[in-house]
Amino acid sequence: KNEEPKKEGEAKKYKIALVLPGPINDQGWNATAYAGLQLVKKDLGIDMEYIENVQQADFEATLRDYGEKGYDLVFAHGVQFTDAVNKVAPQYPKTFFMVINSDQGKAPNIGGIGIREWEGGYVAGTIAGLITKTKKLGAIGSFPFPVIKGTLDAFENAAKAVDPSIKVMKTYVNSWEDIQKGKETALAMAENGADVLFCSANQVGLGSIEAAKMKGVKAIGYIAPQNEVAPGTVVASVLYKTPNLFKWVVEQFIAGKLEPKGYSQGWAEGVLEMDWTDEVPQEVKDKVNAVIEDLKAGKIAPPKP
Amino acid sequence: MQPILKMINITKTFPGVVANRNVNLEVYHGEIHALLGENGAGKSTLMNVLYGLYQADSGEIYFEGKRVNFESAKDAIRAGIGMIHQHFMLIPVHTVLDNIIMGLPGDRGIFYDRALHRERVLEIAHRYGLEIDPDAYVQDLSVGAQQRVEIVKALYRKAKLLIMDEPTAVLTPQEVKELFSTLKKLSQEGMSIILITHKLNEVLEVADRVTVLRDGQVIKTLNTKDADEKLLAQLMVGREVNFVPAKSPCQPGPVVLEIKDLVVKNQRGITALNGLSLTVRGGEILGIAGVDGNGQTELAEAIAGLIKPVAGTILLNGEPIVGKKPRVITEKGLGHIPEDRHKRGLVLDFTLSENIILQSYYCEPWCGKFGFLNLNSIKSMAQELLEKYKVKAPHSEVAARTLSGGNQQKVVVAREISRRPKLLLAVQPTRGVDVGAIEYIHEQIIKERERGAAVLLISTELSEILALSDRIAVIYKGQIMGEMTNDNPDINEIGLMMAGIRKKKEAS
Amino acid sequence: MEQIFTLGFFITLLAATIRLSVPILLAALGGMFSERSGVINIGLEGMMLIGALFGVIGSYVTGSPWIGILFAIGGGILLALIHAYMTVSLGVDHVVTGIAVNILSVGLTSFIFRAMFGITTTPVKVNAFKPLAIPGLKDLPLIGPILFQQNILVYLAFLLVPLASLILYRTSWGLAIRTVGEHPKAADTVGINVVKIRYLCVLLSGIFAGVAGAFLSLGQFNMFVDNMVSGRGFIAVAAVIFGKWKPSGILAASLIFGLADALQIRLQAVGTGIPYQVFLMLPYIVTVIAMSGLVGKTTAPAALGKSYEKN
Amino acid sequence: MKKDLLLINLVVPILAILAALVLGAILLLFINVNPLEAYSVLLFGNLTSLYGISEILVKAVPIIMTGLAFTFAYRTGLFNIGAEGQMYVGAIAAVVVGLKLGHLSPFLAIPLSLLAALIAGGIWGGIPGLLKAVFGSSEIIITIMLNYVAVYLLSYLVDKPLREKSGFYPQTDMIGENAFLPVLIPNTRLHLGFLIALLFVVLVYIILWRTKLGFELRAVGLNLHAAEYAGIDVRTKMFLALALSGALAGVAGFTEVGGIHHRLLDNFSKGVGFDGIAVALLGQATPFGVVLASLLFGLLQVGANSMQRSVGVPANIVYIIQGLIILFLLGGTILARRYQKKKAKGVA
Ligand SMILES: Nc1ncnc2c1ncn2[C@@H]1O[C@H](COP(=O)(O)OP(=O)(O)OP(=O)(O)O)[C@@H](O)[C@H]1O
Ligand SMILES: Nc1ncnc2c1ncn2[C@@H]1O[C@H](COP(=O)(O)OP(=O)(O)OP(=O)(O)O)[C@@H](O)[C@H]1O
Ligand SMILES: [Mg+2]
Ligand SMILES: [Mg+2]
């Protein structure tokens, strides 16, 4: 069993750490986690520690170090930490390890929590399907990791649900940071007829938005609020409220309610949110909102792996 | 008359070596002043100091009456000093014109007016009879032509004082004559010339005065009309010199090396050997005379298997060796003192013992069954050899780089001779080593002959050929121009053959 | 599949080739000067990265991308000075120095960026270069709107090729550079200041690489992101050798890299069923093949990588 | 003379590291971090516990191997910039063997996967070697290019044919437990790979300085023309040197997957190939020097993580300090030599 909850007044004594696989200014995955850390500090008054840019070879050592120092809760920010956590956690029963994006937990002290990213991709695909004129869409991913692939597949499924004749070009760039490659890939898609672009690859996405701007086609922002990156080009952003997710976990933990199982959150839990611009007509918004309601109600199936 | 140059009390040291010690030198307008001295006497160093390439530790230099302090060659050039270095300072991949104008400021801003330069270069070349092609690439030129480029390069910079560091080492006697007449013409026009050489006869022939250096110090400055070869040699070396080593009469044995109609192309595809034939017998020394660049390098490399001939045969003890790998040829009994000890003969950063086993490292007892080196026996053998061949070195485990040129050469000679070769191929065996070492190396070569080995001696130093050979052949443009025995040979005829002029056919 | 190889496809392919080759071309031209003078510069990657950042900082502070370029040049010079001091003045191995410069630059850019802009989830945007249409040419049918509406740095990069040729082969500087790279001692004897020339050439490579970096951050984008150069500096090093240390060869090499990259992106986007990694490998495999069969042996400047100690 | 060696080998490195740290300290002060605190963690934090020390060694293992790889080629006068790629293909081969034969006895499974890594790395290094020998192509370019090819090859393999059975993450399944490199000290990650790396250090030393092959390789590296004159087949030796160099780098892949990850992942151990170049040159291209320099790198990299964790120093400062240490070490050595020369001259 977990530790008993401490008294309210002692809440600030919790030692919580965040282990990040990349730099905190990657404008994406790691940056949102860092924002979560700040939110926890602001709303809960808890100082979380973090370590960024941890290489695969150092996962185990890093987690072990926190266990050794008696941390209460350690966030491992990415499913790639699963192996390392499984190895380390049994030796440090007093520490609860939370793997982000994992859907599995293991008693007594491993939990997983993920955003159902495919739900984000699905909504983006719905929007794209509704506003495309050429019936061609472009979707760019970083690596064919399950989450990314699922997101791209959901994007395609959603667009086809709007209109089965829609074609989706999917491409992986093998990078989180090669912004020029993102741009060129998006340009190639636009030149090949795509008129709405979507990208799930951190900084690379900025490249695809730039390309959309150049080609006068539309883009859908993803994860961060990107409507302002290119007004008129980015018609809407699917926001990740990842910070909320961290806050939720920490709250659950303090309340002693955090269980060693897999949690997943999406539209229903308010971790995903829409950020519209005026570029999108109300009728489209209505249709998309209906899809979001379906997702919340669990009426739409995730893409097959 | 006021001297154009006065160097006063120049001292220049390198770590561990005093290259120049309180040297005084005066050169007058229109004078040809020879600088004479053994290897390592400090001649090049003194000139490099004058030319601004080295900074003297102490001393003063006055040029045209003014105290000067050249911080770089640029200053010296600007003041009117030109220098032609012992090793040519030309860029092989540049054209002649580029080699001449490099370092000059642009004509319009940073741009060169090449047409104008070309014209001026040709004009100077014609005026002094220095035939050059401005558009040729230096890598395609003969050594003599390269030297003409060097001279034009200096003249083009309006030099008033021209330094020439051993300019004749690479020329035919005829080319030397031409060069000297050019120099005389220049001096008559008021140019001052400092001429560095080891060759006493040249000093007497062309110079007005001569300064002799020994161990970094000036021994004497004298007028050439007051000097003769014997005196100069004595001043230079500090003792009487034995010009000709003693050797017993020749007793030739069976043919060891036979070369027939050998054709070799060099790296750039130019024919370097053009149907060359020769034979060498056991117990004799065949000397190949000739001006550098007439195929000597290619001949040696072809025998050693380092380049593959296009046609012809080479028989070593009756066995064909064309197309065989260097190792195979070495094992068949070739000992090879290569032309350039730094390029081929030594791995400068290897220890002396590693250099000594360079040709035999893979053999028993140096190398055991499983490819492991037997360091102890290598070391003791090396130590022994160094002592036997009087190599001046602290011990066998120092890098070859730390030895003087002469001692480096002794290491090469020791290695090749100690393998008791059937054919000793000695190419420029004493190039750039001092008199003591020369005497020693010559002795060793003669010893090999006496042991019964065949010796093929390739040298551009005619005096060396004359001193050692039993027979002399002259190489010119990749062919043997003629052959003669070495009893009272006609030096003039050899000189003509070196220049490509054939008088009589076949001697033997 | 068959409908993709249309005229339009080739024109857009060409345009993408140009954009992708520009940063490589710029950096490689700089690298060429450095190597022609005898100094190996494997630190181009780091110099580009710092150029990308400093360009953004310059534009951020002053609002002018042109001043951004000046900053980028300054950043490139900063790292180049380190490289020059180590290699030319001290004679340290050129390759390690270059690697150290790269490591240093990764840390330095990230540090400076965070210190200046903090940690954000959306990028800091600055004024960047706008496409510049060339009057007349831009109205050419088909190709006009695509080829002649690039930003000014693109035109500049291509103009630098003949300019570099001119400098290298027609001027006193160029002759001095080539002489120093072939035979520093000979250069010394004709009064060429070897140290000065090498410093200048290394600095020149810093300047070019800085501009190449700014081309990414200010020409292609209006922002800096960590590690945005993503290996293009190493490709530039390869382009110098591939291009046989000649401006025209480097132009060709850069275009080949650009083309291979543009092509793989397009083929991937079309969706062929071939694993996408195969396309990503394409530019590199092309180089290996070209280097072995077609280009074959290249002769580097004779004194490349060798330090020169005067006395 | 002894004193001079001491200056170059001990005093200079210490001063160089100090100088780099002082510059880094300025940056630390700038972001309100106490440099003394940060540095005590960076340099000594991990030396106080067995676990910390073992982590340093663990970190050093692949760097030692890539450092040896660079050294080996460098001694033959060649620049192998491709250790990164060779390491990846070595890892691929080791994992394939580990997957297929991981159920065999460890005495078979481990040597076989080591062998596979050696061969695969050898092939990857042999390609530039062959091209160099046949066409004279620049090994620098070819090895750089093959790094990228290896990265994408690895990415493809874990994406498609070797993807784990669940098909979830782009990684392979765990290799058989018998192919795991045994842990040397309980409760640490220090694995057999460390001893294997040390074995290769000795092996490389012996090959280079005690065997005929090493004699030949070094002769080629120091003077190609003299080597040719000595009857050494220069081209074959160049090929061999790059192939063996690649094989050594392949071992780095083997130790990483066998000792740490136990499976193949995209982009594992990024940058180790380049670390290898730096340690080789810092270690003056001697096997023993490589070990020392790798330990320094291991200490810095593990210390950097600790420093981040306990003092909150961002990772980028570590890069800066690492870059500065390399520059100061190399530059400092030369300045010290010059100083000695000047002194010697003063005496003469
Ligand atoms: N760069 C140097 N470093 C150290 N010692 C040097 C250097 N150059 C010359 N020396 C030494 O200084 C002394 C004088 O050399 P220098 O080259 O001036 O002789 P030289 O009279 O020109 O001989 P040679 O006839 O062989 O050309 C020699 O002992 C030589 O080894
Ligand atoms: N004692 C020394 N210490 C350091 N370097 C030296 C020393 N003696 C000679 N050298 C360097 O080694 C080189 C070879 O020396 P040396 O002149 O004896 O050989 P060499 O074959 O006659 O050369 P060259 O053909 O230039 O006359 C010279 O260029 C000189 O710079
Ligand atoms: Mg001399
Ligand atoms: Mg000499």
From TrEMBL, chain B:
It comes from the Bacteria. SUPFAM superfamilies: P-loop containing nucleoside triphosphate hydrolases (SSF52540). PROSITE patterns: ABC_TRANSPORTER_1, ABC_TRANSPORTER_2. It is found in: Cell membrane. It is a peripheral membrane protein. Gene3D superfamilies: P-loop containing nucleotide triphosphate hydrolases. Its main location: membrane. One of its GO terms (molecular function) is ATP hydrolysis activity. Coiled coil: none annotated. GO terms for cellular component: plasma membrane. Keywords: ATP-binding, Cell membrane, Membrane, Nucleotide-binding, Repeat, Translocase, Transport. Residues 5-240, 257-502 form the ABC transporter domain. PANTHER family: CARBOHYDRATE TRANSPORT ATP-BINDING PROTEIN MG119-RELATED, GUANOSINE IMPORT ATP-BINDING PROTEIN NUPO. This is Nucleoside ABC transporter ATP-binding protein. It comes from Carboxydothermus islandicus.
UniProtKB/TrEMBL annotation, chain C:
It is found in: Cell membrane. InterPro entries: ABC_transp_permease. One of its GO terms (molecular function) is transmembrane transporter activity. Keywords: Cell membrane, Membrane, Transmembrane, Transmembrane helix. Pfam families: BPD_transp_2. GO terms for cellular component: plasma membrane. The chain crosses the membrane at residues 6-30, 42-61, 67-88, 95-117, 152-169, 199-218, 273-296. It comes from the Bacteria. It is a multi-pass membrane protein. PANTHER family: GUANOSINE ABC TRANSPORTER PERMEASE PROTEIN NUPQ, SUGAR ABC TRANSPORTER INTEGRAL MEMBRANE PROTEIN-RELATED. This is Nucleoside ABC transporter membrane protein. The lineage of its organism: Bacteria, Bacillati, Bacillota, Clostridia, Thermoanaerobacterales.
UniProtKB/TrEMBL annotation, chain D:
The keyword DNA-binding does not apply. InterPro entries: ABC_transp_permease (IPR001851). The chain crosses the membrane at residues 7-31, 51-73, 85-102, 108-127, 139-158, 190-208, 238-260, 272-297, 317-336. Keywords: Cell membrane, Membrane, Sugar transport, Transmembrane, Transmembrane helix, Transport. GO terms for cellular component: plasma membrane. It is found in: Cell membrane. GO terms for molecular function: transmembrane transporter activity. The keyword Nucleotide-binding does not apply. It comes from the Bacteria. It is a multi-pass membrane protein. This is Simple sugar transport system permease protein. It comes from Carboxydothermus islandicus. The lineage of its organism: Bacteria, Bacillati, Bacillota, Clostridia, Thermoanaerobacterales.
